[in-house]
Design a protein that fits this description.
The chain is α/β, with parallel strands linked by helices. The chain folds into two domains: 143 residues, HAD superfamily/HAD-like (Rossmann fold); 99 residues, Rossmann fold, CATH 3.40.50.1000. The strands form four sheets. A six-stranded parallel beta sheet has the order 5-4-1-12-13-14, sandwiched between helices. The chain has a four-stranded parallel beta sheet with strand order 6-7-8-11. It is elongated and about 55 Å long. Bound molecules: magnesium ion. The site of magnesium ion has 8 residues, from loops.
Length: 255
């Protein structure tokens, strides 16, 4: 069984715009019997919301079960012993906690852990509460370390920027869950077979994720953040875009 493990932003879409040919290429993969797992470091949305967006933007409609987010990876680090959880984040984190039956709190004094992701409603009070909880010994989990994420009109502060504020104020380093860390790699590995192709636009997250499992192969596409001349993890293949990546996988799968 061949699987493509696919990043989203910069690979199949940019913001609300499809990367040309991406939807048709996803359909080709599915028709060829290749498994597709979508993996994103964006913790703001639930798997259902991510699947909806992929369908809306590309015309290829995946099952929510084929989506893995950094929020799900962060929650996979926690058990009921870490509850209640104080959240600096959005629906994606809250829904991932709810689906695992892990309680949340808005009272930082009773929090046994703090999960921080991208939070577009961030306030000084929220940063102060999260930092106080961590300083008082709560476990500190970060969905991901990405400093920015791409938006229609440029780069916006990502989870890493908010995590850095809490880390600085609490004098504590977090445990990171998203790409390229082991937690999200384990979640993905549980869903795929032994012929795995990781397609992404970032060396430090996507291509580094591929390096976490010896057999996984990596394909860098040039429609997003990283370019061929960037330094970092070295991809096995570099192609122009997702459609070209799909050609490569279909021509070389299983071999
Ligand atoms: Mg990307």
């Amino acid at each position: 069984m061949t699987d493509v493990v696919c990043d989203l932003d910069g690979v199949i879409y940019r913001g609300e715009t499809e990367v040309p040919g991406a939807g048709a290429a996803l359909t080709r993969l599915a028709d060829a019997g290749v498994g597709i797992t979508f993996v994103t470091n964006n913790s703001a949305r639930t798997a259902e919301q991510v699947a909806d967006k992929i369908g809306r933007v590309t015309g290829f409609h995946p099952e929510p079960a084929s989506v893995v987010t950094s929020a799900m990876a962060a929650v996979s680090l926690l058990s009921q012993d870490d509850a209640p959880v104080f959240v600096v984040g959005e629906t994606g984190i809250r829904e991932a906690l709810r689906s695992e039956g892990i309680d949340m709190t808005e009272d930082e004094a009773e929090a046994r852990s703090v999960v921080v992701g991208v939070a577009r409603h961030i306030s000084y009070d929220l940063l102060a509460q999260a930092s106080a909880a961590v300083r008082d010994g709560a476990r500190f989990i970060a969905t991901n370390s990405d400093p920015t994420f791409p938006a229609a009109d440029g780069l916006l502060p990502g989870a890493g920027s908010i995590v850095a504020a809490v880390a600085t104020a609490s004098l504590t380093e977090p445990e990171f869950a998203g790409k390229p860390n082991a937690e999200i790699s384990d979640l993905v590995n549980a869903r795929v077979g032994d012929d795995v192709w990781v397609v992404g636009d970032r060396l430090d997250t996507d291509i580094a994720l591929a390096e976490s499992v010896a057999e996984w192969r990596s394909v860098l596409v040039l429609t997003g953040v990283s370019s061929e001349s960037d330094t970092g993890p070295v991809p096995d293949h570099v192609v122009a875009d997702f459609a070209a990546a799909v050609e490569l996988v279909l021509a070389n799968r299983g071999g």
